[in-house]
Amino acid sequence: MTRTALITGASTGLGLEFADQLAAKRVGLVLVARDEARLEAIAARLRDRYGVRVEVLAADLTEEPGQDRVAARLQLDDDPVDILINNAGFGVYDGFEASDLADERRLHELLSWVPLRLCHAAVPGMLRRGRGWILNVASVAAFTPAGSYGAAKAGLVSLSRSLRARYRRRGVRVTVLCPGLLDTEFHERMGADHLPALPRLAWAPVARVAREGLRGLHRGRRVVVSDWRYRLTTPLTRALPDRLLERLTTTNDRDA
User: Fold this and answer.
1) What's the rounded Cα separation, in Å, for the pair 116 and 137?
2) Cα separation of 179 and 227, whole Å?
3) Which residues contact 53 (CB under 8 A, 6 or more apart)?
4) Residue in 256, 177, 179 with CA at minimum distance from that of residue 222
5) Across the 256 residues of the chain, what is the mean pLDDT of every consecutive 10-residue run?
6) Please, which residues have CB within 8 angstroms of residue 35's CB and are 6 or more apart in sequence?
7) Secondary element (H or E) of residue 69
8) Which residues pair with 56 in a beta bridge?
9) CA-wise closest residue to 253 among 136, 108, 144, 175
10) Can you give the pTM of this predicted structure?
11) Catalytic residue among 50, 93, 149, 230, which?
12) Has 167 been annotated as catalytic?
């Protein structure tokens, strides 16, 4: 049976990698991002390379009309979306005391409200069909006192666990993926003057993170911390005091 996946933030980074890996598995795609020209170019490449159906849906998910368009697509029963990947996001580089309040609101809108909105649109149809998969992309920052970014991601982890507990016996699998630092355009879009002074080892390969997320979704896992270096360090967040963790994550809340 042919499956269709809708991916937000599909024009770059982890979202683009999800699109490539799913297309390679012959999964049809609905690509969501703001840049329509870029999405069309990606769609053309994926169609040519993999022979899959690719639909482009340009939408600004920080605005209500864009959210409504994507939600409406998720609610179509005659052309259903089987897999929803909530991946779109951005960060605020300035510290909390100096950040623009409008930016903080947009951040929480995109990282917390939009996944809730789109899950709310997708779940009823998935329940009617008796099947569905939702992958929400959070961050290891969700497990630390990592500013407003970590707070938004923590909310997404909690939402994902709740939906999984409620609906998994009715055929809807919900997994939350928690990556660490990824070498993508994320930092450039934040307007950061420089990347964090961390060794190359700290940065996880995007292809591996996407692969682990999709594998975890397929297996019905609750939370996937990706990759191995973050699986090793995440347990420390339960042992170290918040004051120390906050110091360690002062940079990471802007870069994870």
Assistant:
1) 12
2) 7
3) 4, 28, 29, 47
4) 177
5) 92 96 98 97 98 98 97 97 95 76 90 97 98 95 77 94 97 94 55 50 80 96 78 53 49 35
6) 11, 58
7) helix 64-74
8) 31
9) 144
10) 0.85
11) 149
12) no
